[in-house]
Amino acid sequence: MKAQVLHEYDPSLTAPSWVNLEDVPAPVIEKSTDVIVRIGGAGVCRTDLHIIEGIWKPHMDPTGHGLLPFIMGHENAGWVEEIGPEVEGFKVGDPVIVHPKVSSGTCLACRRGHDMHADGKFPGLDSNGGYAEYLGTSSRNLVALPRTLAPKDVAPYSDAGLTAYRACKKAAQQLLPDQSVVVIGAGGLGHIGVQVLRAMCAARIIVIDLSDAALELAGKGGADHLVKADGGEVEAVLSLTGGKGAEAVIDFVGEKGTTHRGLAMTRPMGSYYIVGYGEDIRVPTVDLIISEKNIIGNLVGTWAELVELMSLADRGLVELHTRYYSLDDANKALRDLHEGRISGRAVLVP
Ligand code: ZN
Q1: Residue 61: pLDDT above 90?
Q2: Are residues 138 and 17 in the same domain?
């Protein structure tokens, strides 16, 4: 099968190309509960750029044995192509979206429903992913797609959407109608987050972004206030919130100084949710004590949360803004993402 393979890290992201289009063996059923999915779409994620930079290497390869080469792509949807003898509830041809973490089902994290903290492979981060014609996964990972949703239109929900959903769900569970929530970064994840917040809570939604196109998209998604990231965004949020800051700030950027500004626009006793990543959070401990601000990490989401998100998508409450590329053009898609030319989400279609 055709696949885009990562052979080498590029910490400065300056190489002329990052993945290599190759003819490789297709995945095969190894365990009785394995499933082969024919890829309908594979989302292109900022995490893919961070993988290429080598940021994930110490986390995914703590023993330093080396993970490369592998096929990239952790946001996958498609159709069931082949099933192991013990797979129940799915048949060949069913449209599915794939939860990104291949979990065992028997560890404590799995049994508590925390799939993303389970032991197991993370295809596209530590093993072969979906920048390919076929992906090997487990029946535990599949969520059946309603007929209203085509795989290539929903693939990014499996990680980007799920991560945005989980963070926004946590915030929405705390937010009251007279309160405010700030979304920093209305790109691939943020534009989903705005719609999730609109669907799940009645707080005022303030969106900050550098790009006019992203702000326009956020406005269509239900944002109440749009703030251009021109250096005055902390003051802008303070003036929209009576000088106190927002009860919740969800940071989909996490680099280039947004963590400092995000915490500065969080109200005392408010919560700052970190989703995008790259820089260190530096805050004097005494400031956290005095303000009682919470800093909350977010990692993907559970299988059940993917089902919840698909329910929002099926009812048209959340819609992905996508741009399609052929699988052959993976480097172009990655480059466009790196250089800020994608509004919404890029999807590779084999
Ligand atoms: Zn992703």
Answers
A1: no
A2: yes
Do 114 and 168 fall within a single domain? Answer: no
Instruction: Return mean pLDDT, the chain.
Output: 95
* 143 & 8 share domain: yes
Q: How far is the CA of 76 from the centre of ligand 1 (A)?
A: 10
Bridge partner list, 294? 271
- In angstroms, what is the span from residue 160 Cα to ligand 1's centroid? 5
Find the 337 Cα to ligand 1 centroid distance in Å.
Answer: 12
Tell me the per-residue pLDDT of 140-195, one tens digit each, with 9 for 90 and over.
Answer: 999 999 988 999 999 999 999 999 999 999 999 999 999 999 999 998 899 999 99
Number of other residues whose CB lies within 10 A of the CB of residue 204? 20
Ligand 1: distance of its center to the CA of 66 in Å?
21
3-state SS, residue 43: strand
Parent domain of 228: 162-297
Q: How many domains does the chain have?
A: 2
Residue 225 CA to residue 214 CA, distance in Å, equals 13
The answer to pTM > 0.85 is yes
Distance 138 CA to ligand 1 centre (A): 19
Q: Which residues surround ligand 1, an ion (CB under 5 A)?
A: 45, 47, 159
Q: What are phi and psi of 330, to 5 degrees?
A: -55, -40
Q: Residues of 95-121 as b/e, b for ≥16 C-beta within 10 angstroms?
A: bbbbbbbbbeeeeebbeeebbbbbebb
